[in-house]
Amino acid sequence: MTKDLVKAAFYRSLPVLGGYLVLGVGFGILLGSVGYGPLWALAMSLAVYAGSMQYVGVSLIAGGASVLTVALTTLMVNARHLFYSISMYDLYKNAGKCRNVLIFTLTDETYSLLCGGSVPENTDPDRYRLAVSLLNYGYWAAGSLLGGLLGQVLPFDTTGIEFSMTALFVTVFVDQWRGTREHRPALLGVGLTLACLLLFGRELFLIPSMALITLALALLRPALEGKEGTARG
């Protein structure tokens, strides 16, 4: 990777840098509060790399959850990846040796940075996406290690710290909203999610909402692509 490519990827990943460091620190502190040190926090972030599930995982570890419970909870929490990752197929299919790394490091925030498909001029698209993905991966791992270390030397009240993940989602949403004039997909996502939350409750709304959002966006895609083509013309 060239210096210019890494620099461009770093600037693109700046919104995630602040969020992941804070969230990673929160995770490291939270994991330390149930008796697991900084190396455990680092190892879990490197091997699992699933922010919201790692937060949930702390309570599962502390409660002595069974393997089956962990597996089912992970499926429910991360089911959204089954839906939005499909849209990355065309971007990743010719990535060669980088493809497996790109797939493993695809998170909500990395997806939000890369889903548009735009890359800087005179830049290899696959290497650029790899650089963004690895930088985000590194931010999360570094934050987790730092949180684990801080949790050992400084007293922290971890009450409410899990809300930091929600705060990052809101930040990414606002950044995406400001970066495009087409707001129908965002409005659909918010509206359908709220409707499913009211209909199914907070424990069951995730999968129905993702399914409905996927269906709605598939139906809306011709109109969106037509508008984009008209704008270019």
What is the SS-derived class? mainly alpha
Share in helix: over 70%
Output the radius of gyration. Answer: 19 Å
Amount of beta strand: under 5%
Shape: globular
What is the helix tally?
12
Low-confidence stretches: none
Total number of β-strand segments? 0
Please give the alpha-carbon distance between the first and last residues: 34 Å
For the sheet with most strands, the description reads:
none
Series of secondary-structure elements, N-terminal to C-terminal: HHHHHHHHHHHH
* Overall average pLDDT: 83
What is the topology?
Blueprint (H helix, E strand, L loop, with lengths): L2 H30 L5 H10 L3 H12 L4 H11 L2 H5 L4 H4 L6 H6 L3 H7 L10 H29 L9 H16 L5 H17 L5 H27 L1
Helix pairs in contact: 1-2, 1-3, 1-9, 1-10, 2-9, 3-4, 8-9, 11-12
What does this entry look like structurally?
- The protein is an all-alpha fold.
- It is 75% helix and 0% strand.
- It has twelve helices and no strands.
Characteristics of this structure?
233 residues; 12 helices; globular; mainly alpha
Gist?
The protein has 233 residues and is mostly helical.
